[in-house]
Amino acid sequence: MDHRSGYGVDKKATLPQEDEEELQGLLVEEEEGEKQTLNRAQLRSEEDYILKPKWYSEQPKPTTREYHWTISEHELNPDGVYRPVMLINGINATSIHWHGLYQNGTNWMDGTVGVTQCPIAPGHSFTYRFNVSGQSGTYWYHSHMSMQASDGLVGPLVIHSSPNQNLQKAPYGQDRVVLVSDHYYDLSSSLLMQYLSPGNENDEPVPPSALINGRNTRDCSKLPSRTCSSTNTSRALFEFSPHHNTRLRIINVGAFAEFQIQIDEHEFLLSEVDGTDVWPQPIHRLNISPAQRYSIIVVPPKPHKDLYWMRARMVTHCFAYENPELQEEVWGVVSYGARGTSVAYTPESKDWPDIIEVECRDLNTSALEPVEVKPAPKTADDVIYLRSSFQIRDWRLSRGYLNDSSFRPNVTSPILNRFIDASAHDADVEHVASGSELSSGINTALFDASHDLVYQTPSFRTLDILIQNLDDGTHPFHLHGYKFFVLAQGPGYAPLSLLSRPPQSPSPTPTPALNLHNPLRRDTVSVAAYSWTLLRFVANNPGVWALHCHIGWHAEAGLAMQVLVGPDVVSGWDVPAEFKRLCAAEGVERGKAEGDERWGGRWKR
Predict the structure, then answer these.
(1) Which of 94, 97, 102, 99 is nearest to 124 (CA)?
(2) In angstroms, rounded to a whole number, what is the distance separating the alpha carbons of residues 141 and 144?
(3) How far apart are CA 537 and CA 567, in angstroms?
(4) Quick check: 169 pLDDT over 90?
(5) What gap in Å lies between CA 39 and CA 32, rounded to an integer?
(6) Is the peptide bond before 303 cis (omega within 30 degrees of 0)?
(7) Which residues, 6 or more positions from 485, have their beta carbon under 8 angstroms from its beta carbon?
(8) Rounded CA gap, 251 and 312, in Å?
(9) Which residues fall within 8 angstroms of residue 377, CB to CB, at 6 or more apart?
């Protein structure tokens, strides 16, 4: 498993990682069983984003990988402007979510504050232990406490497949990670307070800058109100060989912006989507929403120039207002053989002539076919119909809603804890929890659906999630613990026939043809403005799993719900003692967003 941080600051909270035979581990240059601690407040070197080719030729034995992280605050200037890039340990509580990992049998290690765990309080530690067998591909980790990910607590996590299970169908000689992110100059805690205050009609904070692998360079003369020095900043540098292809594992670790990414004068092959290997498809611009991952195979042009621009453009059409500090593009340098000159000289490559993207929408993946064939179930046992919207209610507060529910995490009493405790101590609740009274549906016996929308289902039922976006913005929805089949998407209102099996009445909109043979499988899908998306998955992983918009501001505004799978299994869990102790630690609430009651008595309609 390759695991690296975008900023390279030190970390804490230990992570022993049990790898199966087909999986392999790496943190910087550590050997099997070796412990390594990072204690440098600096940007990662370019070499740290190049994955080691030995992982494709060796077959290590099953082992436990142990990584020691100390999370703390540092001030860096990734693009010239100085700002704190971590605001965690010693200051605020935190957690780590392992984005895209199934956590099969270890739901309490999912790292989702208010859902599967209490935060790790300042001065305390927590050991995440989980197994990643059965998965390979490109994933990432990030804080799941308030908006801390926007302050820099993110990084890639790569699980290699075994040498005899190579599902990548385009050859390559080098394997690299590329992190793209929007970049704010103010701390997320301050921006979040502004965003959630009365009178803001979902006007998300507009990022002034963007980074590639934690790097950019700004003209400080155009930022007079900022403490800025670009003397030691640089653009991200990618040294490619002209003799073989290069795989780029691209991850959008940003809080808000969708990116359109290209390398001038290069076409490339799209070969992986959210950890699913797909048959290569040629494209020359890649749209990627927050939390999504794509692998592309870059083929060297023949003949080639020495230098080319890599351009990552934020799709600013979705931004709510104009930010005078905004630089919407961040550029990296791709070098073929011009070693040592790539930063000093400016590429003369040409931009693609076609019009750049002006709409925030998912990449068209309808033609992508997974290499490993997995048919979707022909029908669903149940349909979860979700209306996604932003509404202004009491005290002029704009909040995100799924149906009539706006999520408010209880950081000292997560949903998983409440369910297990109630099932153990209340016979009536245990009767409901076991599924004897509630086969599938919203659990109102334990949870207030206005703030904790928990859909409960027995294991091994096939669920459809039909998301109807009633908002004027795009929402990248992420489901924890699963990959889902993306069956259909479309503009306007979803056909009524998708809500029932079989249709109860004729639908005015024709039912779309569903690809059931081998549809795309992923964990984060964007639902465009005023559009709908139909997802399907088999609920075979017991636990409480979050489904939420991965735009950080929207998640904090409440655009989230939970799916409780296998309540009869979950109610009998005996979770580790250190997991339970998190909730009683002093400072566990430090850093959480203030509740809506802060505004009580003001501006009430």
Answers:
(1) 94
(2) 9
(3) 17
(4) yes
(5) 20
(6) yes
(7) 376, 519, 520, 521, 535, 536, 537
(8) 12
(9) 462, 516, 536, 538
CA distances from 273 to 138, 192, 283, 289, 548 (A): 8, 30, 14, 12, 19
Q: How does pLDDT run across 90-139, given as a tens digit for each residue?
A: 488 999 999 999 999 999 999 999 999 999 999 899 999 999 988 999 99
Return the SS3 of 348.
Answer: coil
What are 442's two structure tokens?
A: 């919203």
Assign domain 382-573 to its CATH architecture: Sandwich (2.60)
Strand-pair partners of 402: 388, 405
Distance CA 491, CA 509 (A): 11
- H/E run at residue 579: helix 577-581
Q: Is residue 68 within 8 Å of residue 219, measured between CB atoms?
A: no
CA distance 473 to 551: 11
Residues with Cβ within 8 Å of 438's Cβ and at least 6 positions away in sequence, in order, are 432, 445, 456
Domain boundaries of the chain, sorted by first residue: 2-336, 382-573
Instruction: Report the predicted TM-score, pTM, of the whole model to 2 decimal places.
Output: 0.90
Same fold? 2-336, 382-573: yes
Structure tokens at 28: 């910087």
Residue-wise pLDDT tens digits, 324-362: 999 999 999 999 976 554 456 689 999 998 877 777 888
Superfamily of domain 2-336: Cupredoxins -  blue copper proteins (2.60.40.420)
Omega of the bond prior to 377 within 30 degrees of 0, cis? no
Distance set, CA 539 to CA 62, 397, 459, 508 (Å):
28, 35, 5, 31
* Distance separating the N- and C-terminal Cα atoms of the chain: 53
- Decide: helix, strand or coil at residue 38: coil
